[in-house]
Amino acid sequence: MEAVPVRARVYVACVAVAALLCLLPLPGIRTPWWAVALLATLYAGCERVARSRFVGISHPAGTFYPVLLAGAFLLPAPAAALVAVPGALLSHVEQRPLALRRVWRAAQLVLGVWAAARVHWALGGRDAVVAGDVPYALGPAGAAVLAFCLVLALLDGGILAVAERVPVRRAWRGLVSRSLAPIAVHGLAGLMMAVLWRSPYGPVAALLVLLPMCVSWWAFAQYHRERAAHQATIRALVQAVDIKDGYTRGHSERVGQASMMIARELGMDDERVEVLRFAGILHDVGKLGVPTRLLRKDGPLTPEERRVIELHPEYGHEMVRGIGFLGEARAAVLHHHERLDGTGYPYGLMGSQIPESARVVAVADAFDAMTSTRSYSRARPVAVALAELKRCSGSQFDPEMVEALVEAVGRAGWRPAVTADDVDPTRIPPPGAPVSSRPGAHR
Amino acid sequence: MSAYRPPPLFTLVHGCAALLAAGSLAVTLYDGLEERRVALAFGVLVTVGELARRNGARVREPAPLGAAAALSYALLGEAGGRATHHGPAQVVAVVLAASLLASVPHVARGQGPTLDHLARRVLTVGFVAVCFQPPYNRGMFDDWGGPAYALLLLALLSLTALCDAVLAAALAHSRTGWPFGPVLRDELRAVLGIGSAVIATGAVMALAVAVVGLWALPVFSVPLLLAQMSFRRYAAVRATYRQTIASLARATEVAGYTPCGHARRVAALSQAVGRDLGLTEPELAVLEYAALMHDIGQLSLVDPVPAGATAGLPAAEARRIALLGGAVVRQTGVDEAVAVVVERQADPYAEQPLAARIVRAVNAYEEKSREGGLGGPLTALEELRLATAGEYAPEVVESLARVLARSSLTLPVTG
């Protein structure tokens, strides 16, 4: 976001003014200032730690809402809203403009917490918290959490609509349903904090509630970090194949994308679509086992050389069969060169004997091979390639898959995005070349 | 391990736990249960927590909720504002009964009762209960203020967690022969992770039940369950990552550069040697990945090395392949340390990091012992010993010999 549109600035300013109005009655009310200070410090500290390099990736549900919600359950509305301010203003922001984002964040949280505290107060939640009447206290707390969630979603949708010109309906769709479950858990933790805070055991006991939450955030961040590393590994693996084969860059990724489009078009569920994306990405991984000399050979191959190259689906299957999460993608790796009429390899399966995933990947593979430039042929236009696929459907390709690809490309077009652009392919050493060590070349 | 006699410490710990359990059951049966409702509620929670247990070699605390519920029952002084009167015997009996009940499905599924787990649970809960219940029931904590009381519970649980870590490390040490120090360090690190969540939840549950009654139990279980779920997902993605790395390592085998199963065998044996030499868990992870991928540089060769025997290559050629391998590993985005180990596996040992020394020696042993046929392992070890002047680090070769002696000089079984 280089230049923030004026209407977005105005929107943020309006929200900030509303937040200030919420904080205005502060001097007039009786507030336990030490509690406000303690909670605010706690929130700011946690926020700092959570977004620092120590934890790495920030949590999608973002922040230490339990502290804020405990404030909403304990304090009068303006005081509870004040708890959010220092943490939000001091928090680490990744993108510019920093000041605007911080103000926006603070104003949003002030309004959310204020609304939650008002709802909680109106429903008589305060007395339930003080009395430690837990089954009853859950009701007002639930309502307060809902109000908090709604206000945040409303404001978030608003900024999306104003700043990015996302249509209002689309901006709001899913915002509440996505954040309600995590915030409900935060609310539960907030309620526990509030109850213990007012108990004879005091704030010390309340702080202990945060520990399990912190631990689970830490584990969650580790999970994301490990997952990202895993994906980077798979991507690098695939690039090694592309380079070894002398393909144009990103062939495997594009096959993955085309497989995904076909799978979506066939109405498969998200999990299967993801598996098919991996099937497309990894379909040629067995080529790592074929001598580079053969893969790059100019001119016609002898029958024996051809036989060696045709072993690559079996090599690939041998490699990936131990990776549990790939599921049916493993069958796709083994059978992506089978043909419907039974003249393919390695097993010469016919028609429905060929696994569905393999039929998807076969079409995607052929499509990308035709539409990208190779050492031996120029790229053909998408329409020509689709026509060619249609011509071969029934004998080589499954007509259902070809039809799905034609539909999907017709609707969304074919704009393959190579996501693996952070790794420079020239860094893989050519065979036989001397290589010096490169400390810090990656990560 | 059928012909294997458990070491004395093992017998001692299990014996103590059995004695404590039997004594507590007898006392409880004789005296009857105090506050049945409370006992039942905690028993149910422990059962639920234990049912959600997931066994696995790399899981430190398989049932966090079960542990937290058991500890909080041991620390319970009041429920909903009324004092409770149960003694340590009842605590141990309830926890034991609930754990046994919950292990029925696990046994039925053929996973076997994890006696270690049960023994440690009984001992830790017994320790906490003995430290807390008698003084409390005699009114010794009555003059303590609320916050001080909360801190007391926390301190008691932390002490217990430390003792438990020492006990677990001692058990692992006596069972496997791994050095005590690094095992203890790994156990203590686990206390900082999920262990701290268990401690906090245990203390908080005991306090919350005192304030609001038994309703606190389900409500306060939620954050801990969340933590457990996060840890499981983390463990799952780690497992997947390991599978992917192992598959990548198989590329050289598929291509015919190295014999089948070589990478996996080197990784398994390197891990054993690494443990013997006292590496910590993170270091062992690096070692495992590096051992799996140590031959990956050969993929960049135009023609395979004969029989994949890199140990017999001229030093310059071996180093070149190692550097190529390091470059490939860097590409994959694995931890930088792994690439360094792969890169330096062919250097003279004086210049190598420990992990690279291990990979080098184990790789050579694996290749030589395979070539040697029936007497291969012994001959290979002898050859390695003779070459300790410049190529293989003496301490690694000695450790390898110890590890092999422990597993009766056979090649590790591959999975």
UniProtKB/TrEMBL annotation, chain A:
Which Pfam families is this protein grouped with?
HD_5 (PF13487)
Record region (Disordered): 417-443
Query: Transmembrane stretches, by residue range?
Result: 6-26, 63-91, 103-123, 143-163, 175-197, 203-221
Keyword Zinc-finger, does the record have it? Answer: no
Task: Please give the organism.
Answer: Streptomyces swartbergensis
Annotated keywords: Hydrolase, Membrane, Transmembrane, Transmembrane helix
This protein's name: Metal-dependent phosphohydrolase
Outline the extent of the HD-GYP domain.
226-421
| Residues of the HD domain | 248-370
Lineage, broadest ranks: Bacteria, Bacillati, Actinomycetota, Actinomycetes, Kitasatosporales
Name the SMART domains for this protein: HDc
Q: Which GO terms describe its molecular function?
A: hydrolase activity
Stored SUPFAM superfamilies = HD-domain/PDEase-like (SSF109604)
Establish whether keyword Transmembrane is in the entry.
yes
